[in-house]
Amino acid sequence: MIDAPALQVNDLYKSFGDNAVIKGVSMDASRGDVISILGASGSGKSTFLRCLNLLETPDSGDVFLAGEKMAMKRNRRGHQVPVDIRQVEKMRSRMAMVFQGFNLWSHMTVLDNVLEGPIYVQNVAKAEAKEKAYAMLERVGLSDRAKYYPAHLSGGQQQRVAIARALVMEPDVMLFDEPTSALDPELVGEVLEVMSNLAKEGRTMLVVTHEIAFARDVSTKTVFLHQGEICEEGPPDEILKSPKTEQLTTFLSRLS
Amino acid sequence: MDLIVEYQAQLIAGTVMTIRLALTSLFIAVILGLLGAWAKLSNSRVAGFIANVYTTLIRGVPDLVLIMLVFFGGQVTINAIGAATGLWGYIDISQFIAGAGTIGLIFGAYFTETFRGAIMAIPTGQIEAGISCGMRRSLIFRHIIWPQMVRFALPGFTNNWLVLVKTTALVSVIGLQDLVYNAFTAGRSTRQLFTFMFATLVIYLLLTAVSDVLLRALERRYNRGVVRTN
């Protein structure tokens, strides 16, 4: 199992009512892969990401994290449900997520936001957790803001705190759900810079994004989703420079 | 003034009764309110339906009618059930229990709406952030939902509490010797009703003023991290 991919997704399906959003998506991420997931709005890319940590429950399909399968069963109505919620919680803590809207806990200071996971989910001793938290804040360049509340920070700073909050869990995989889409243009750079540094360190990352430059320069693999299916995938410089499908060509021409 | 001093024991006893009654009612109301909010927000249709019937019924009927219904009707009903089933003998509902129970029941309906609104005001993203870092439901409730719910609920809570304190005056109709009852009795027997009602007014104002100060302090505590944009 040592060689198991960091994250493996087999044939994932998800629909909301009659609306099929994900129609059989499979994906492998080896350790150190940075996979950028592109697609027009409504292509299902965020839903796909949210199915991985069960913020949305997929209709079918398997998710493996470092070879460990997220065990699911069917309830009486035929819906998928976790076999063991504790296992799911454990696996979630190893797949930290960064959201479009930051989602920092507004009643906690920056430091407490970062401390919450280590202390209450991973049961790390307070002193040790504090040391780690400060180290992570240092990494995202915000250790001087530890005692601030989220509302006193800019969007870019909030998102960097959210990245520190994810990072401090020492996750196997980091999931980024359009991390720069809610930011003012001048704040996008600081967040992308932090993310590039993480990529250079060899972190395994799945990044749903609209930032073509980030996909091209940072990711090791690009996946283009169209109407819930993988339309095209491959090394970013190949598929972004010479897209084979009409859909990706259209998508790229709209962005530039 | 001499009269007030002469009757101070009754007035103090009445005030203590009013405070005890208000706090007991509040306790019942908060528990019913939390249950009601939970029921209304849960996926269970049955729970939601029961909670809706409860709040609709209570909020549509005058408090005085409910108090008399519970005090007179409740006692008859409980004893009728006891007699029919033979499970218990004659039970005498004390005025305090009837009063606190009814006021708790009434304000539970108002607190249900206050708490429901407060929970709905918490951004779902913050709960999702908790879920996605592996927090258990109980931890999410204690660390993310509860502190913010309190913050969003406090203004409505303060309002409900002040109305509740005043509503306790209604229990004098079932003979509970609260502040109003004692002041009214003293006023009638001395033929100085105005003096005693004025004293009552001052005492109620003091009670609500003290509540206001305490609740404001609580609001400050729970408002940490909130930026007011004026």
Structural class of chain B: mainly alpha
Largest sheet of chain A: 6 strands, mixed
User: In which range does the helix fraction of chain B lie?
Assistant: over 70%
Largest interface: A-B, 34 and 23 residues
Oligomer: heterodimer
Q: Report the C-alpha radius of gyration of chain B, rounded.
A: 21 Å
In the CATH hierarchy, what is the class of chain B?
Mainly Alpha
Q: What do you see in this structure?
A:
The complex is a heterodimer of chains A (256) and B (230). Chain A is 37% helix and 26% strand. Chain A has helices at 45-52, 85-93, 110-121, 126-139, 155-167, 185-200, 212-217, 236-241, 246-255, and strands at residues 7-16, 19-29, 34-38, 60-65, 68-69, 72-74, 80-82, 95-98, 173-177, 204-208, 221-226, 229-234. Chain A starts with 6 loop residues before the first strand and ends with a helix. Chain B is mainly alpha-helical. Chain B has one domain: MetI-like fold (Orthogonal Bundle). Chain B is flat. The termini of chain B are far apart. In chain B, 33% of the residues are buried. The model of chain B has no long low-confidence stretch (mean pLDDT 89). Chains A and B meet through helix 2, strand 8, helix 3 and helix 5 of A and helix 6 and helix 7 of B.
Name the descriptors.
heterodimer, A: 256 residues, alpha/beta, six-stranded mixed beta sheet, four-stranded antiparallel beta sheet, 12 strands, globular, B: 230 residues, mainly alpha, MetI-like fold, flat
Describe what is shown at a glance:
In chain A, 37% of the residues lie in helices and 26% in strands. With 256 residues, chain A is of the alpha/beta class. The model of chain B has no long low-confidence stretch (mean pLDDT 89).
